[in-house]
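Q&A log
Question type: sequence-to-structure
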Amino acid sequence: MEEVLGKLDKLLKDKDIIIAAISGGPDSMALLDLLCKIKEKKDITIVVAHVNHKLRKESEEEKDFVCDYATKRKLIYEYMEIKEYQHDNLENEARNKRYEFFKELVQKYKANYLMTAHHGDDLIETILMRLVRGSSIKGYSGFREMLDMGTYKLVRPLISVTKEDILNYLDKNNLKYYLDKSNNSMIYTRNRYRKKVLPFLKEENKNVHLKFLKFSEELEQVNNFIDNYIKDILNDIKNNKGINIDKLLKYDDFIIKKVIEYELSLIYTNDLFRVSDSNTIAIMNLIKLKKSNGIINLPNGYVAIKDYNNFKIEYNKNIDEYYYILDKEVCLPNGVIRVIQKSNIKSNYVLRLNSKDITLPIIIRSKKDGDKMSVKNMKGSKKIKDIFIDEKVSVLKRKNYPIVMDSDNNILWLPGVKKSKFDVETNGIYDIILAYEEDYNEYK
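Response status: OK
Response body:
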């Protein structure tokens, strides 16, 4: 942590203004303490930015804790409360609102820096998750230590240290913090990497986080080089109607793929983790089809459109209905359903099927009026509408909630809510495992 303190000391100058994203958790409280130590030596302004997501009962106590900490140290305290959520993807909406709040504060105070508490373990988890899921070179690089946002810089000072380093620092300095209990739940993909994969890597090399940081930096350089080349190509093949497909197809598949990834990166600036290589491949296949027109659904309500000889990506205002045939993975407006090879999870987020009991292929579609499912361990069938009510599923979520069914219209699963009679126990005979993830918790 002394190295981090040294970097901050070198980076920050008198009169600098820093927006610090502080949740009250161990990582952000360590960051805030380091900034306060710099403030003892330099004339800097620290704005403590706290967001109350109203999703956990502890959030009120955490809000008061962060406010008291800032007040006692004569720091500026800025608070935002998310009172309601308009969309079904709560994590994604919360993150977007959080970063909009931070940007507003940057403008309000004319800040030089926005700082978050992402550390080296976070980087390892992010890279591994994207490698397993599939992404682009930019996606595989994870996140950077410093990003130039134009009028300010986004900085992650703790990227070179581990969670253990942070906890030791907090303990040594007798600093209070709050823990989010959901970080221990094995339901979340990131937590499984944290609990199972990271310990093994650290046994092999205690400084593995620095190896991943170097890997991230190398990929970022490669990506910048390729992006500059792609920009030159786009100057020739892109117009106000989109990308000219005939011109694009003159290039080899690698370049076509990179053009698509670049276009996706423009749309998903801070959400690139929501796009996988399966999305890119689907778009490539669409472009190469002899069919004149076509459309592919993408995460967050966007669509890739082929309109005769032009291709573009834009927001789709009509995402109430969707229909997919499951191959390996399907990205939905509110999450991802994928085929996996192995899992010990018994929750409603994982479904096990015996292909002999159902009719393939598996279909994933939006809810329809009158939908019914034979719920596991219940006699007869029950309306999906009633299941939503009984399970207290938000009205906002119900509209686009995924229905997983077989080709005989048997509803197999309400991901994350209920399983049907077709679900097989972990000690039974099954050859298909499906997993559902509502979001990827990339930010603190």
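Response note: The first helix runs from residue 2 to 11.
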